[in-house]
Structure formats: C-alpha cells, structure tokens
Fold:
Amino acid sequence: MMGIRRLLLSLGLVIFAAAFIGVVSASGPVTTGDAGRTVTVTDDFGESVTIRGVPQRIVSLAPSNTEILYAIGLENRIVGVTDYCDYPAAAADKPKVGGYSSISIEKVLAADPDLVFAAPGNTEDVINRLRTLGLTVVSLNPETIDDVLKDIELVGRATGQEQQAAACVEELQERITAVTEKTEGPAEKPSVAHIVWYDPIWVSGSGTFQDEVIRMAGGVNAFGSVEGWSIVSLEEFITADPEYIIVNSGTGMTEGENDAIYDYFMTEPRMQGLDAVRNGHVSVIDASIIDRGSPRIVGALEEVAGNLHPDPFETETPKTTPAAQSPGFGTISLISALLLVYIFRVKR
Structure:
C-alpha cells in the first residue's frame, strides 16, 4: 500500500511539473539564451527592423495584427491595442492606445513596448514618429491571403514564436487546400458581388481580399473589372445581375443591431428582379472576417465556398482559427489519463 501511495505521489508531482512548465512556456519569459538573441526582419514596406531579445511587451495598432498575435499564442505579451481590436473577445480587455487612424503616441509610449506592430491606416507620420522616439516598429500590410500567411510567419520570427507561427500557417494552408480542391476545375462558376455599402453601392473589385475569396471559393467576381473598392451605379448593378450577393454584416464596416445592407437588398423594390434576390442567394457575412487581413480570412473563404457550392460542403461545419495552445497541457492530459487507469486497476 505504501508503494502505491509513493507512486501516486510521484505521478502527482509529474503532473504539477508539466503544468508549471506549460504555464511558464505560455508567458514566454526571456531565458539566458534568448537575452542575446538578435533577429532582423523586413516588414511589408521594405523596412529592415532589428529586434534584440524576445519582445515581452507588444503593442498592436490594428485589429488584424491583434488577431495574428492571439493566433500564435502571444496574448500574454500584449500591452496595448486599438479601440477596434475586438477579436478574440479577450482583446477588448487590453489597454487601449487610440483608434486605428487616431493613435495616441502618448499612450503607446506609456505602455512601454519593446515591439510595436503597425499598419498603413496608422498614418506614415505616426509610424515615423514612433521610430524617432526609439520604438521598434514592424508594419504589416497583407494584400492577399498568401500575404497573411507570410505575415504570420513574420510575426512569429519577430517575437520568437516561430514554431507556433509555422503550426498556424500549416493549419490554415490545409483548410485553404480543402476548399480549392473542391472548387477548382472546369465546372461553371457563378457570378458573385460583394457589397461593402449600399448608399451609394460600394463593391469589392479586383485586388481586394474579397475578390480573391470569391475566386478561390469557385466564383467569378461580377465586378472584377473594377479596381479596388469602388462605387457602381444602381443601373450598373442591375445590369450585372449577379447570381449571388454577399453583403457585410451590420453597417458594413462595423457591427450593428440590424444588417443594413441585407435589409436594403431585400426591401428595395428595384432590386426584387435580381436573380440573387429571387433565388434567395443574398447572404450576410461578418464584416470583420472578410475585411481583415487576419487568419480568419480563411474562415471567410470556407463560408463563401459553402454558400456558392452547398453540395460539396454540406456535411462540413464551419471552422475557427484557435489561439495557439500553451505547450505542456497535452502531456498533462495524457498523464492524468494514465493515472486514472492505474488507480482503477489498483482498486480492482
């Protein structure tokens, strides 16, 4: 009996040690080896940025940047985000440093970051000012889904999270391939319009994330001849008569109680003759998923592909991009299971 107790105590200590290692790994402290680490990265604007050590205090100046940081397990190192960083939900509890295009330099400095991830919308003046004040700034500006994957790897390298970033990219690439394998080919591709706003009608043209999502999901952009996000007249839209219409949720760029764009298309008398309206092919998509250059853009691809081609995707459930899990907890689960099995056998 004494031997059994000793064994159980030993197993308990192993579980505690594994849990402790997992927690320490999640917080990412600088080790002796990490302190001398120096890495140089080239950001999306061609700036060469040298980072010394492993950054422990990170400020994100864009919602898409914040999503990437969470996706590779850096949530415990984030000390500042913008007012619009709302995903995942925990990001709302982080200290705020201003709006996307109205960053408070004073608040960024007060956060005492050793690394800042910026974006074009922060304005060149603000980014240059932060650098002049001695802050290390890496700017991200993904323009394609492939760019998003590259930026995840870039963030991983800049923060010492290379393995987590590589795992995230691999999982996203597998999901992309699972979609494109079903949508590529000679099958007829329906025309699709993505609407950002309705008064006037703003559509997503070529060179946008939405255009790429439509094409990879097995559709043809009804306004692919338009460059970027552009206004089209009511007459132009009715003439194009897209087979599918995808509209942003809420007010188009932000969430609201009602889906204003969807309501417009479903109630506007002049839109009732459109194929998409008559056939029930008008769908709402979360604006933050399809508009941001973050890991969730792959979720937008899956959702749009399911809308355009329901048969190949009807048995699948929507996926999310989880934040990176802290290492060590898989080991805890395994040890706990073995411990329970052992106790059960002893009792028998």
About this structure: The longest helix spans residues 2-27.
